[in-house]
Amino acid sequence: MEQLIEKTMYATRWLMAPIYLGLSLALLALGIKFFQEVLHIVPVIFSMKEVDLILVVLSLIDISLVGGLLVMVMFSGYENFVSRMDIDDTGDKLGWLGKLDSNSLKNKVAASIVAISSIHLLKVFMDTQNIPNDKIMWYLLIHLTFVLSAFAMGYLDKITKDASKKDNF
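Given the sequence above, the corresponding structure tokens read:
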């Protein structure tokens, strides 16, 4: 009975596979939004103010960072929690694939969120004349919360690794 329960529990990890596949649909949606933004600026690029162009470019960078985050979560999450990917090493395999454990993934996600938040904050600062000061303050506080959270997670991971090294000696 115990073995049946354990095998059943272990097999339920495959319930995560459709979720990771669903993230690829989110990646497709981001790709559509990216090119929609590009198509919007092409006809008016010569009449745009430099600041407006920079804001659009920052939005495109933002979309690409979120896309990279999705790829990282899809692949490493699948490999960590569902099954190893059977991709041969003939050049098409991503260098980090199979090397990100759940702690590394968590830290990379936190760093990506900080980077995305930084881009968003830069967009806010580029458009300060149109944004009320109290909103700018909230954007800054939220960004600082992300930065402090990422730092704390990295620091806790370092402490955990250092403690496990000491235990092994």
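Residues 35 and 60 are 9 Å apart (CA to CA). Try to locate this feature in the token string yourself.
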